[in-house]
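WARN no homologs supplied; continuing
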Amino acid sequence: MAHLSSLHKDPFSVDNPEDELPVLPLSPVNKPVVLIVDDEKFMRTTMRDALEEFGFEVCEAEGGREALEQIQKTCPDMVLLDVLMPGMDGFTTCAALRLLPEGAHVPVLMVTGLEDTESICQAYEAGATDFITKPLNYTILAHRILYILRSSRTFEELKGNQAKLALAQRIARLGNWEWVFEPDRILFSEEVCRIFDLGDKEIDLPFQAFLEFIHPEDRARVERSLLDAQLRQTPFRIDHRIVLKDGSQRYLLGQAEVGLDASGTPARMMGTFQDISERRESEEQIRFLAYYDSLTQLPNRVLFNEQLGYILNHAKRYGRQVALLFLDLDRFKLINDSLGHSMGDLLLQEVAQRLISALRSTDVVARQENEDETLSVARLGGDEFTIWATDIENSQDAAKLAQRILDAFSKPFPLKRHEVFITASIGMAIYPDDGEDVDSLLKNADSAMYHAKSLGKDNYQFYSQSMNAAALKMLAMENRLRKAVEREELCLHYQPLMDPRSGRILGAEALLRWQQGDQDSVAPADFIPLAEETGLIVPIGEWVLRQACDQIMEWQNLSLPPVPVSVNLSSRQFWQEDLIGMVSQVLQETGLDPSLLHLEITENILMQNGESTIAMLNALETMGIRLSLDDFGTGYSSLSYLKRFPLDFLKIDRSFVKDIDQGREGAAMVSAIIAMARSLRLQVIAEGVETDRQLEYLRGQGCEMVQGFLVSRPLPPAQFSRFLARHNGAPD
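OK structure emitted
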């Protein structure tokens, strides 16, 4: 018998020479453990000496019961089991150890002097892996043990890989299937069965039975795609729905390829089904954010523009008229301020439902995808709504619709414990007389609406060419606003941006305020839109930018910790003649580090002049300025565009933050926005944080910064200095 302990080859290698017996490394950790079970001490000793000579670690058991105890204690890699033993023979012992968790898969080599067929069959039926007959050739025995161990290890690895694959498929909701063309059978894996709610065992069924699971609206498309892939021998990929036994639906992604037989004829199709219902739900949620107003569920400005553009093209082709109604609520700000924003939001929801009820089916044009319900009303923002009517015969048809809406507003709106009366002013423009494109019609309907307000509100007016646009834009306030710049009545307040984890102040937003001498201050919502419409926002915006930069430098001179300040840019400012030159000049003259200046743009800017917008933002970024998308979620941008722009921050609109307190659905919206921002590598700032619950939720979702009354109201510069010193450290 050769001593092979000096060899250092892998004992499980399949390429060992026939005349050599490999030996395991002598490290106790690596030695396979062999349990010898025999009632004869001489046989146990002889086998132990031989196997230890070949590099195995050996333990012994005198009988079946002792063997079962040893297996549970030592968990051997292999069992050599004598057949003929008193009391509990080898067959009984083998069957018993197979019932133990430790012995269920351990290889068992039966050692027997019996060579009859019945004994051999009995050994295998008891669970033996193999058998060897006496007298033993120990070299052959060692090779046989190594072969069985190698096979066992391969089996265990295969079983482990199958378990990992099954786990991965369960996590990914991904299962495999195979369609054999002849005979016509489709085999579903366990995971596909779970996806189809058919239990967790593999099944097979005919092709037509499989098609019965497909949603009726998708069935013909799926069948056509499968048969076409079979005919053309091309890969198959399709999204579709299935209907489960309880009537619920799931979205699947199906993929497959055709397999050929030896003659090159298509014989089978092998593929996967993945449950993508959650992904589709997220996509629908994101699509909703892009095209619908989250508060009222109405189409937003993006969908309004798309739908009205389609309608006008249709009207032009067939020579028809279209009426566009622009509605603005009267005294909404008073109600919002007196009853609170939550009541204001509830009122807007009630208004949306009343508008829908007031519309006739003939007024309807904007169809929501995958729904039978249609809408001809959209919310543009704030308390502004648009309604469009197709196939009108004359302007009186539009007037009747407007009057029906005003009549609907004559009844009070129930708001929890309150009943609110509110009226509306409606301006109307008719295609093609008052405009032949969306922008012209919207602008003229807007002008007509302001004319209705100037006539006492609660009425409707048609657009006419004779309207004086300047008079409709509150000339008196415009004149006062022009003088406010000269009289230095404008000032900036700063609202802190806080890290929700550490409580440190990471920045501030500069907010414009107007104090008319000894009179009350003018709300930004009243004068900023007017400044934008009249163009005053351009010189005012430059003043704001310079003041903010000067203020940052002043704080630095006071040795306060440097914090960046965000300045809002309106659409008109963004498209002024030389924005880049103006910003560069201000930075140069004030000496400010550009990284401390953040510029905020609104979503509608991203929708205008795509390439020019990208070029402008790239130029600002090159200067070192950081860019933020303000009021995200108000529905003005197409989310697919966001990744094209060099943005650094995304600010969640306060309406979404407020909804966190309303329950799971509102929180889910915020979570979806944060996840989307993270995928685009944008930092997230949440606006309008007013409650501890909102703060805790945003902190848990990984929101980088929060802003709102819970942190601080906008503060004058001196107060902000003290606030900053208190939170980030006092100056030296």
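The radius of gyration is 39 Å.
OK
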